[in-house]
Amino acid sequence: MTRLNLLTVFALLAGLLGCESNPVDTKTGTVTQDDVRRDIDQAAKTTTEYANQSREEFQKGLATRLKDLEDQIASLRTRQGELQDEAKANWDRKLTALEAKRDAASSKLTEVRRASEDAWKDMQVGTQAAWDELDKACREAMSEFKTVTKSK
Question: What's the whole-model pTM score?
Fold first, then answer.
């Protein structure tokens, strides 16, 4: 969030310093209210465009991660057949829990897509945490599955 705030400040400063095509009258050195309003409007538009691009990139990244995790879970479900009955039942419980986490992360992605501009910024941290937890759980499951299948 700090990075976004910093970029917002830079965008506002750029607008206030006259990045507009109608610069301040340099002969008199006078800045009018219209100059300030115009520059603030331009900075606000630039900031909004940046926020929208950032949001879209975040959503695309999560969608890609979701697809990868779904593939990994499907692979584990398929390979579960290699296990003995007791281990298979244990893995069924673990994979069901992993799928529940995947569903929760998918719901977070849907929430981000539906959220207003202001709300999504607040949701970003929580959404990232949910995805990180899912990534970690999936990596641990893959590692544990390799251990279980080697020991049989």
Answer: 0.57
